[in-house]
Specification:
This protein is an alpha/beta fold. The chain has one domain: Rossmann fold (3-Layer(aba) Sandwich), CATH 3.40.50.1010. The protein has a 5-stranded parallel β-sheet, with helices on both faces. Helix 1 packs across helix 2 and helix 5 crosses helix 6.
Protein backbone atom coordinates (compact mmCIF):
# COMPACT_ATOMS: atom_id res chain seq x y z
CA UNK A 1 0.00 0.00 0.00
CA UNK A 2 1.26 3.46 -0.85
CA UNK A 3 1.60 5.97 1.98
CA UNK A 4 1.57 9.62 0.96
CA UNK A 5 2.60 12.52 3.18
CA UNK A 6 0.45 15.45 2.12
CA UNK A 7 1.56 19.07 2.02
CA UNK A 8 -0.78 22.02 2.66
CA UNK A 9 -0.72 23.30 -0.91
CA UNK A 10 -2.05 19.96 -2.18
CA UNK A 11 -5.00 20.25 0.21
CA UNK A 12 -5.54 23.87 -0.83
CA UNK A 13 -5.53 22.83 -4.50
CA UNK A 14 -8.17 20.23 -3.68
CA UNK A 15 -10.63 22.64 -2.04
CA UNK A 16 -10.10 25.64 -4.34
CA UNK A 17 -10.38 26.14 -8.07
CA UNK A 18 -6.95 27.77 -8.37
CA UNK A 19 -5.60 24.99 -10.60
CA UNK A 20 -8.01 22.40 -12.06
CA UNK A 21 -5.15 20.10 -13.13
CA UNK A 22 -3.75 19.98 -9.59
CA UNK A 23 -7.25 19.55 -8.21
CA UNK A 24 -7.78 16.49 -10.44
CA UNK A 25 -4.44 14.95 -9.38
CA UNK A 26 -5.06 15.34 -5.66
CA UNK A 27 -8.66 14.15 -6.09
CA UNK A 28 -7.37 10.83 -7.48
CA UNK A 29 -4.96 10.39 -4.58
CA UNK A 30 -7.67 11.18 -2.03
CA UNK A 31 -10.06 8.82 -3.77
CA UNK A 32 -7.59 5.92 -3.53
CA UNK A 33 -7.18 6.67 0.18
CA UNK A 34 -10.95 6.76 0.71
CA UNK A 35 -11.10 3.33 -0.95
CA UNK A 36 -8.30 2.18 1.41
CA UNK A 37 -6.00 1.49 -1.54
CA UNK A 38 -3.49 4.02 -0.18
CA UNK A 39 -3.03 6.06 2.95
CA UNK A 40 -2.67 9.82 3.43
CA UNK A 41 -0.41 10.91 6.29
CA UNK A 42 -1.08 14.49 7.28
CA UNK A 43 1.30 16.19 9.72
CA UNK A 44 -0.67 18.37 12.14
CA UNK A 45 1.28 21.47 11.07
CA UNK A 46 -0.05 20.97 7.53
CA UNK A 47 -3.57 21.46 8.89
CA UNK A 48 -2.43 24.63 10.66
CA UNK A 49 -0.99 26.02 7.43
CA UNK A 50 -4.12 24.96 5.49
CA UNK A 51 -6.36 26.79 7.98
CA UNK A 52 -4.20 29.92 7.90
CA UNK A 53 -4.12 30.14 4.09
CA UNK A 54 -7.84 29.50 3.63
CA UNK A 55 -8.68 32.06 6.32
CA UNK A 56 -6.20 34.83 5.52
CA UNK A 57 -5.59 34.43 1.78
CA UNK A 58 -8.84 32.99 0.46
CA UNK A 59 -11.22 34.50 3.02
CA UNK A 60 -13.04 31.22 3.64
CA UNK A 61 -15.22 31.33 6.74
CA UNK A 62 -13.83 29.54 9.76
CA UNK A 63 -16.95 27.39 10.01
CA UNK A 64 -16.42 26.21 6.42
CA UNK A 65 -12.76 25.50 7.17
CA UNK A 66 -13.77 23.60 10.30
CA UNK A 67 -16.10 21.40 8.23
CA UNK A 68 -13.36 20.79 5.64
CA UNK A 69 -10.93 19.77 8.36
CA UNK A 70 -13.48 17.49 9.98
CA UNK A 71 -14.47 15.85 6.68
CA UNK A 72 -10.83 15.31 5.73
CA UNK A 73 -9.70 13.93 9.06
CA UNK A 74 -12.55 11.39 9.37
CA UNK A 75 -12.11 10.18 5.80
CA UNK A 76 -11.05 6.54 5.56
CA UNK A 77 -7.38 6.26 4.69
CA UNK A 78 -6.36 9.55 6.33
CA UNK A 79 -4.17 9.68 9.43
CA UNK A 80 -3.24 12.94 11.13
CA UNK A 81 0.31 12.69 12.49
CA UNK A 82 0.77 14.43 15.83
CA UNK A 83 3.91 12.68 17.02
CA UNK A 84 7.18 13.23 15.26
CA UNK A 85 10.81 12.53 15.81
CA UNK A 86 12.28 15.94 16.61
CA UNK A 87 15.79 14.59 15.99
CA UNK A 88 14.86 13.88 12.37
CA UNK A 89 13.25 17.33 12.02
CA UNK A 90 16.39 19.00 13.40
CA UNK A 91 18.62 16.92 11.14
CA UNK A 92 16.98 18.76 8.22
CA UNK A 93 16.26 22.17 9.71
CA UNK A 94 17.59 24.78 9.09
CA UNK A 95 20.62 23.65 7.04
CA UNK A 96 19.06 21.32 4.46
CA UNK A 97 15.49 22.59 4.68
CA UNK A 98 15.23 26.22 5.84
CA UNK A 99 11.44 26.11 6.37
CA UNK A 100 10.55 24.35 9.64
CA UNK A 101 7.15 23.17 8.34
CA UNK A 102 8.85 21.57 5.34
CA UNK A 103 11.34 19.87 7.67
CA UNK A 104 8.42 18.41 9.62
CA UNK A 105 6.91 17.00 6.41
CA UNK A 106 10.30 15.52 5.49
CA UNK A 107 10.64 13.99 8.96
CA UNK A 108 7.21 12.37 8.70
CA UNK A 109 8.19 11.00 5.29
CA UNK A 110 11.38 9.49 6.73
CA UNK A 111 9.98 8.20 10.01
CA UNK A 112 6.97 6.52 8.39
CA UNK A 113 8.90 5.28 5.35
CA UNK A 114 6.25 6.88 3.16
CA UNK A 115 6.04 6.29 -0.56
CA UNK A 116 6.03 9.97 -1.55
CA UNK A 117 5.28 13.52 -0.50
CA UNK A 118 2.31 15.11 -2.28
CA UNK A 119 2.93 18.77 -3.16
CA UNK A 120 2.60 21.09 -6.12
CA UNK A 121 5.20 23.57 -4.87
CA UNK A 122 8.18 23.32 -7.24
CA UNK A 123 10.73 24.72 -4.78
CA UNK A 124 9.67 22.24 -2.11
CA UNK A 125 9.70 19.41 -4.62
CA UNK A 126 13.28 20.24 -5.56
CA UNK A 127 14.44 20.42 -1.91
CA UNK A 128 12.89 17.10 -1.02
CA UNK A 129 14.14 15.39 -4.19
CA UNK A 130 17.69 16.59 -3.51
CA UNK A 131 17.42 14.79 -0.18
CA UNK A 132 16.40 11.56 -1.90
CA UNK A 133 12.66 11.79 -1.23
CA UNK A 134 10.04 10.84 -3.78
CA UNK A 135 7.53 13.56 -4.63
CA UNK A 136 4.18 13.39 -6.40
CA UNK A 137 2.77 16.57 -7.81
Amino acid sequence: MKNYVIDANALISFVTDRNPEQQAKISKILQTAAQLKSRILCPQNVLTEFIYVLDKVYGVSRNQIKKMIFDFTVMPGVSVIHDLDLNIVLSYWPESIPDFDDAVVAAVYRSTQATAIVTFDQKRQNKWRLLGMDVVG
